[in-house]
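Internal QA ticket QA-208
Title: Verify multi-chain structure generation after dependency bump
Assignee: T.L.

Test input:
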Amino acid sequence: MRTIEWRGDHAVLLDQTRLPHEVVTIDVRDVDTMIDAIERLAVRGAPAIGVAGAFGVAIAALRAEREGLPVTFVRAEAKRIAAARPTAVNLSWAVRRVLGRLHAGAAAVISEAVAISEEDVRANRALAHRGADLLEQLTHASPMRVHTHCNTGALACVEWGTGLGIVRVLHERGKLRSVTADETRPLLQGSRLTAFELTELGIDHQIVVDSAGPTVIARGLADVVVVGADRIAANGDVANKIGTYPLALAAARAGVPLVVAAPESTLDPATASGGDIEIEVRDEDEVLTLGGVATAPRGARALNLAFDVTPADLVTAIVTDRRVIRPAAGERP
Amino acid sequence: MRTIEWRGDHAVLLDQTRLPHEVVTIDVRDVDTMIDAIERLAVRGAPAIGVAGAFGVAIAALRAEREGLPVTFVRAEAKRIAAARPTAVNLSWAVRRVLGRLHAGAAAVISEAVAISEEDVRANRALAHRGADLLEQLTHASPMRVHTHCNTGALACVEWGTGLGIVRVLHERGKLRSVTADETRPLLQGSRLTAFELTELGIDHQIVVDSAGPTVIARGLADVVVVGADRIAANGDVANKIGTYPLALAAARAGVPLVVAAPESTLDPATASGGDIEIEVRDEDEVLTLGGVATAPRGARALNLAFDVTPADLVTAIVTDRRVIRPAAGERP
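Actual output:
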């Protein structure tokens, strides 16, 4: 199934907090449920939460039409949805886009939201093939070893994936040797989700703790680093899951290419640079516990920064569904 | 109590795998128990495992004397002890040192082992005061914010601590504002042990996931980074807990000093550079589980690199019990 789908009058999404041990779906029929799913990362990944946001507005528009509520109700709901998570620009972008169809009625909003999800699938495939071509140019290693962070696979999108979509195309072409994946604390999207997808795809891989990623790169165990993005500023700075910046530092020092894979909707020309991107600070308990097990003494405090910013000069290339941008060489989106 | 102590005819150590939730000691009366404690990190930290190794040889020497076994028995036991963990040089150094007294009998070996543990306490205090002086020179922030990794406190030594010993002196001088500590996956020495020690000392602190350390530095939330070492090569390269290298990269880029705190016994003139240091690869299950909870799909594989190497050019200073060395400025140990 797809990570997130529209079914007649509601959305269905895969609960990613339960993976890999359980495959459970959630029927989303009201805005509160959608906001909750976005906030607790039942649906996650910049492209997927964009689609989730659009479906959330569709649910609000449908309710407004059924109950005779004014458009101001839908706009207020849309504002709440867009505020569910601050860093990924895809969420506010998708919400804004479907709101543009609100004057034409709920069916038009639904149709626009479904269009966004279909475009995501097409964009991912285009991006993945362009990215695979680029990687074959950037490294002479064949087959190649890819290091990645967090989850940029089908689960981060509607289907197929961005960064992991590239990996998948390389695998199909017989150009992939293996993948090393950071576990991605605190919520373990790497070990829970990326390892799950790679296992399903039959791709040879190993999980490492996040702090080992830079050593994998420094020791020559990766030919290229591929990550996703939550927001790309006008100057080419990239906000992505916490832990991307240390990989970029290590890759630059080792002369290993760092490739950022993201659809055009992740580019944010309205944000001048990485310093202007709001970095989400999440609940301390995500750091202080794991699977219900306390990892620190009672009363300990944590600072849970969910994203970091990689400066443009460390980004070898950004691959989108339409183009390749080379920030380290001075190109700007 | 001390982390590790000699009591008449056996050693007693604090089981660090049980902290912070339980305070349990282990009586060590045979070599197998000591090797097991070292291997599973019941005792850990380069200075502490040096002392543990010396006590292990003392136990073997005592048994040889009681049972009339030849010195070759003790030498073979010493070899097994020294091989329990490969990266920290303090272990083989301490084992070699007490073996030098074997010709004089078990009492002499015990006396030498106890001397090593007493010297560790004195060395830590000297190092901590010298390190605190250095930090006050290196940063104008007062009181200062220190970022640290793993555990370099009393628990890593016999008592007092190396890196965290410096922090403790700064705290006593009223020059410390707060500490940020990496949780240090996979075994969480940061959140389990460092947070425990800082809580006991009444020092304000926050835990971050390891991959957030570089962002703490990049965002100006730390005035200095202080870490320990397991082996320092002749050219100034530093092997330390996995995750040190990304902090060093981030610190160099941000212009934040990186200070390595270690006793002289951690310097290894016989190892030319970091590339010659054997990096321990530990069991995959440490990465694939946490507190008995599986973090990855069944059948997933991991690469568990326990240490990394920070090149000398990224090390602002090494502080020992006798001196300050500035590798980034071209000084060599």
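Spot checks passed. The longest strand of chain B covers residues 176-182.
Status: verified.
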